[in-house]
Amino acid sequence: MLGKIKKTNLWGFTLIEIIVAVTIFSIIMTSVIMIFVNTTNLSMRIDVDRILQENSKNIIEIISEDLKKQDIKVCDLWIIQGCIWLSNIMTWSELWVWDNHYYLAKESTLWGTFIKVTDLIDCNTKQCYIVKNWELLSNSYVNIKNLEFSIFSEHNSKVQINVLMYPMSWKWIKSSLIEKSKLNIQTTLNDDYIK
Question: Residue 164 CA to chain centroid, in angstroms?
Answer without folding.
Answer: 9
